[in-house]
Amino acid sequence: MPVRSLKARWLKFLTDDQVHDLHQAILEVLWEVGVRVEWRPGLEVYADAGCRVEMSTQRVQIPEHVLKVALQSAPSTFTLHGKQPEHDVCVTLDDVYTVAGSSALFVLDLEGQRRSATLRDLEDFTRLIDALDQAHIMHAMVIPQELPQAGVDRILFSTIMKNTTKHYYSQGQGGPSVRDQVEMAAVIQGDTQAVTRHSQFSFVVCFISPLVHPPEPVQEMMECARFNIPVWLEPTNMMGATAPLSIAGALVELAASSLAGLVLMQILNPGHPCILSTASGGFNMQSGTYVASSPEAVLLHCATAQMAHFYGLPFQGGSGLDSCLPDAQAGYERMLQVAPMSLAGVNFIHLAFGMMDQLLTSSYEQAAIDNEILAAAFRLSEGIEVTQESIAIDQLKGVGPGGQFLDHDYTLQNFRRLQWYPKLTTRVAWDEWQRRHEGRDMRQRANRVVREVLAQHHPKPLSDDQEYELDRMAQAFQERART
Questions:
Q1: What's this model's pTM, rounded to 2 decimal places?
Q2: 138-154, pLDDT tens digit by residue?
Q3: Cβ–Cβ < 8 Å for 199, 230
Q4: Buried b / exposed e across 238-264, counting CB within 10 Å, b at 16+?
Q5: What is the rounded CA–CA span in Å between residue 81 and residue 85?
Q6: Neighbours of 150 (CB within 10 A)
Q7: Domain that holds residue 40
Q8: Is the dihedral of CA 173, 174, 178, 181 positive or negative?
Q9: Residues 174, 222: one domain?
C-alpha cells in the first residue's frame, strides 16, 4: 500500500513575533557563542566559507549571511526512497510521517520478561514494524547486546535491509560507517551511482548538547555529503541539564546546533537533503534522569517544528515514553505526544513505536498499541470535510424531524471513508467483549496480534545471493572496525 499523504498544520504555539524573537536569538548564538566542531577538516570547511574559526578552541562562529546561503540551497521537498516505489516517502513541510523506535538495549518480550536485546529481536522487531500500517520509516528498534558493539551498525544495516521494504533510517560510528553502508547498499541497488541518486537509507547525525559537534558526526556529515545520503541533524538536549530550563532556551540551543550542521552540509554539497531533528526531553531533578514524555517536551517539539518551517526545512521530533509497561500511563503519554505533534506539523514523529523506559526498552506489545494510537491521532489531523454534500442539507430535508440516517445512501456509501475503525480498540458492551475477546485487555489483545504478525509476515526484499553478500560484508566490516 502506498505511503499516504497527511497534510497537517493546524496547531501553532508561537506567534509571529515570538518566531522573530527566537530567530534573532538563534542568529546571536550562532555568531556570538558558536559551536565547537571537534574535527579539523570540518573546521577548515567552515573557515573557507567565511565563518570565524578558532582552531585552538575548535570554535566556529557562523555569520547570518553564511546561514542565509545555506538555507537558500537546502531543499524543503525531496524523496526518501524505499525498496519499492510504494514505500517512497515524499518529504514536504506539510506532510506528517512516522519513524520507528531507536536503539533500545532491552526488550519487553511477549512472555512479559524484560531482558537484553538480541539479534533475533532485531529481526523480529523489523518484521513487526514492516507490517504496521502507520510505520513509514524503519529504524533499528534494538541494539543486539550479544554482539561486539564496535562496528555493530554494519550488522544492523544488513539485518534490517533483509527484513523490510521500507526506507531505513540508519546510524553509525563515524565516516567509515557511511562508506561501508554505501558499499552494502550498492549490493541491493546495483552500484554506488544508484545509491547516490536514490539512496534507500538515510543517516542520523547526533550532536552533543550544548553546541558540540564531536569528531564522529562531523566525519559522518562529510561522507554523507560525498555520497548524497540524506541526513537527520539531531542534537538532543535535556531542559535544565544540557540546555536552558525554559522551553524557549532549549529550542534556541537545539536549533542553533542543528542549523550549524545544516550549514556544513550545504557548503559541502549545495542542495543536500537535510531534516532538522531532536529527541529532546526534560530532566528529572529528583532522580537525575531523562524525561521522555512531558507536556514541556511536546511543546518543545511542536514549537521547533514551527521554527524549522520558518526556515523552510522539514523537522523530526519525538522522545519515547517514560512508562515501563504497556499500561494506562503509556497510553496517555503516547497520545499526549502524537496528537499535538501531528496537528502541529511535526513532519516525522520519531520513537513512535514501542519505545519505553526512557528509551532503554522496546516493547512488542506497545509497538502494536502505538500503531493504533497513531491511527487515531492522524484521523484528528485529517480534519473535517466541508462540502455541499457533507454539510448534508439535502439529507436533513429528505429525512426530516424524527427520521434516521442509517439506511441513507450517503451513509452506506461513506461510512468506511468518514469514520475511523480501530483494530485493537473494543467498542462493544461487556457481554460482547467477553464473547469476542474473552475478557482480554488491550495489552493482551496486542500480544496476540504481534504473535500473528511474526508468524505470518516474512518479507523477503532481497535475493539469496544479496543476503549472503550483505552478511559477508557486514561481518568483515565489523571485524575491521574492532581492530
A1: 0.95
A2: 999 999 999 999 999 99
A3: yes
A4: bbbbbbbeebebbbbbbbbbbbbbbbb
A5: 7
A6: 13
A7: 16-70
A8: negative
A9: yes
